[in-house]
Amino acid sequence: MPELQALRPAVFIDRDGTIAEEVGYLNHVSRFRMFPFVAAALRRLNEAGCPVIVVTNQSGVARGYFPESLVHEVHQLMMQQLSKSGARIDAIYYCPHTPSENCNCRKPRTGMLEQAARERALDLRRSFVVGDRHADVELARNAHARGVLVRTGYGEGELAWHAVKWPTPPDFVAADLAEATDWILRQLG
Ligand SMILES: [Mg+2]
Ligand SMILES: [Zn+2]
């Protein structure tokens, strides 16, 4: 059994609307557009020794909108673009299911985070979730992590129209992933 001290905090990051432009169902690799500030932000997390883990709901697979191979193709492109800028994603988890399948991995359920925690010796309570939907903030709450909402993607609209009825507000609201990273690095000290 690993010592508790060996468990590390991680930053779990949503893909669509947070790392890349929200385009609805990203059903072709040509529609992938990474935000320009992402590589520098991830590089800072890499340098801080903080694992960067992407967690994304991709129900378009189960809905038959695109094959599962496309998810891998998009992730390969994302990793390639990042590595050209000296940035790294340590792991990617995705949920291919629809809500009606009632799986344990679709955000805001915590299956992907729990799997990552087991596989990578992570301390979820000291970890962070960054995303543009309230489901990402709920995911953070469900995992006892801290949630950061970004204003990119759906974020601005989520704040404008839905924030008043959220049972749990985000721990921090950031303009984008760059500002979210500033805040997270301050919390990590
Ligand atoms: Mg999103
Ligand atoms: Zn799932």
Characterize the structure shown.
This protein has 189 residues and is an alpha/beta fold. The chain has a single domain (4-188), classed as Rossmann fold. It has 6 helices and 6 strands, in the order βαβαβαβαβαβα. The protein has helices at 38-47, 68-84, 111-120, 134-142, 155-162, 177-188; strands at residues 11-13, 52-57, 91-95, 128-131, 146-150, 172-174. The longest helix has 17 residues, at 68-84. It binds magnesium ion and zinc ion. Magnesium ion is lined by residues 14, 16-18, 131-133, 153.
Helical run tally? 6
- Beta-strand portion reads 5-15%
* CATH class category name: Alpha Beta
Mean pLDDT: 96
Q: What would CATH call the architecture?
A: 3-Layer(aba) Sandwich
Output the helix-strand order: EHEHEHEHEHEH
Q: Which of globular, elongated, flat, extended, rod-shaped describes the shape?
A: globular
Q: How is the main sheet built?
A: 6 strands, parallel
Topology, please?
Blueprint: E1 11-13, H1 38-47, E2 52-57, H2 68-84, E3 91-95, H3 111-120, E4 128-131, H4 134-142, E5 146-150, H5 155-162, E6 172-174, H6 177-188
Parallel strand pairs: 1-2, 1-4, 2-3, 4-5, 5-6
The chain binds magnesium ion (MG) and zinc ion.
List keywords for this structure.
189 residues, six-stranded parallel beta sheet, binds magnesium ion, 35% helix, alpha/beta, Rossmann fold, binds zinc ion
Quick rundown:
The protein has a 6-stranded parallel β-sheet, with helices on both faces. The chain has helices at residues 38-47, 68-84, 111-120, 134-142, 155-162, 177-188; strands at residues 11-13, 52-57, 91-95, 128-131, 146-150, 172-174.
